[in-house]
Amino acid sequence: MQRKFILNLIFILFLNLLVKPFWILGIDVSVQNRVGAEAYGMYYPIFGFSILLNIILDLGITNYNNKNIAQHRQMLGRYFSGIFNVKLFLGILYMLITLSFGYFIGYEGKEFYLLFLLGINQFLSSMILYLRSNISGLHLFKTESILSVMDRLLMVIICSVLLWSDIFGGVFKIEWFVYAQFWAYLMTAIVAFAIVYQKASFFKPKIDFILFRIIIKESMPFALLVLLMAFYYRLDSVMIERILDHGKTEAGIYAQAYRLLEGFNMFGYLFAALLLPIFARMIREHKAISDLVRTAFNLIFIPAVAIAFISWRYAEEFMDLLYLEHVAYSAEVFSLLMLSFIAIAVTYVYGTLLTANGNLRQLNVISLIGLIVNFSLNLWWIPIDGAVGAAKATLVTQVLVVLSQIVISKSVFKMSYSWPYIFRLFILFVFAIGISYYSSFYTDQFILHSIFTGLIFVLAAFLLGLIQPKRVLLIIKKQ
């Protein structure tokens, strides 16, 4: 299983490195610069609001389906027939509730129209994730990897035409960005549906109410988990826009920094997408998971620390390179958010492990505490520090959540704490701070210095025994 994880991780990282950096740095950043902080600050909180009730689209079905298809692949036909039409019904319900809440909190005119469009996009995105969960559950990871970048690749093509061609005379509207998302999601959903339809033994276009009741009953803990996580991940931008007098501009500044965190976060999500079905099958077959946990942790923690501290040291340089407005302020937000990236990355290992094992009660308690802490800190810090306050709240919340997940995982799976290993991680952590700060005095070329720092950091991890190339090659060669 370690061999399958590493090989497919290499493949999916390769695909995503081809597409998603250009999507984030080339397209998304260009859109923010073209429309300005205020217009993007109108779009981004509405986008965040559309995600808050995203759980209605899914009710935990995707994670439940991924786990069960991985353990009982012969059930694909029945699950597919029973769930697909339920997803259509949930899409209608989601739109009605989301638009009602949007009207209630004051969205009107252009804001309400954007919420309607983004609601449709959320439905298509949720459908794609459900369809991909079937493919991932079958362990068809290469196919799933291609689908994971297909929507972004299509958006890159569409937005490139809108942004840089002379067809529209250099004009770009934020609505066009949403339209591009719609067509990219729609085409990806059609392709994913065709693949799953071919793999299923049969498909009946009707709701299987018996299966629906079973799934809803068993997936509700998943649904609650996703809801709580969505709130403490997305509440900040909505609260910024609603609380502050210049909320749209402040939310746009926050979005400049948070968008890069989301970009790096995509690679963490790839770990979870691979690990969930692999962990689920290993647990069902009573295989030891400690080695895979250690391998996955090292592979995600070490790059996350390097990225976080390079971003922290050169926050203003990165913001100045990418954006035209509010550089210094967004840099302050970015430096804090990228420190929280370390905790978020580790969550994709331990949170996924607990999900695969069905420890939803513990995860829900952790997420509820995280939501309460995040909301309280945002309510306190946003009026005082604006977007910086929201970034502080995110950092505290994510550290609290990941430490809780590690403690519970160690307890549930009887994994002992290796203090020599923890000490080596601590040394690496301290080294990251030192190398990020002091080596900058030797050059004023921050991009070259960032690359140099990353290489030195990887070398340090190798010398500390945290990266073991021989072990990785042995796993890859092992039949």
Jot down its keywords:
17 helices, mainly alpha, disordered C terminus, 479 residues
Can you walk through the features of this model?
The protein is an all-alpha fold. The chain has one domain. The chain is built from 17 helices and no strands. The longest helix is centred in the first third of the chain and has 51 residues, at 2-52. The protein is globular and about 65 Å long. The relative contact order is 0.11. Residues 475-479 have low confidence and may be disordered.
Reconstruct the topology from this structure.
Blueprint: H1 2-52, H2 55-58, H3 61-71, H4 76-104, H5 110-137, H6 141-164, H7 174-199, H8 209-243, H9 247-284, H10 290-313, H11 315-322, H12 327-356, H13 360-385, H14 387-412, H15 419-438, H16 446-463, H17 469-477
Helix pairs in contact: 1-5, 1-6, 1-8, 1-9, 1-17, 3-5, 3-9, 4-5, 5-6, 5-7, 6-7, 8-9, 8-13, 8-14, 9-12, 9-14, 10-12, 10-15, 10-16, 11-12, 12-14, 13-14, 15-16
Q: Outline the biggest β-sheet.
A: none
* DSSP strand count: 0
* Helical fraction: over 70%
Helix and strand content put the structural class at mainly alpha
Shape assignment: globular
- The helix/strand order is HHHHHHHHHHHHHHHHH
**What's the helix count?**
17
Gyration radius (Cα, Å) is 22 Å
Q: What percent strand? A: under 5%
Average pLDDT metric: 78
Number of domains: 1
Low-confidence stretches: 475-479
Distance between the termini: 10 Å
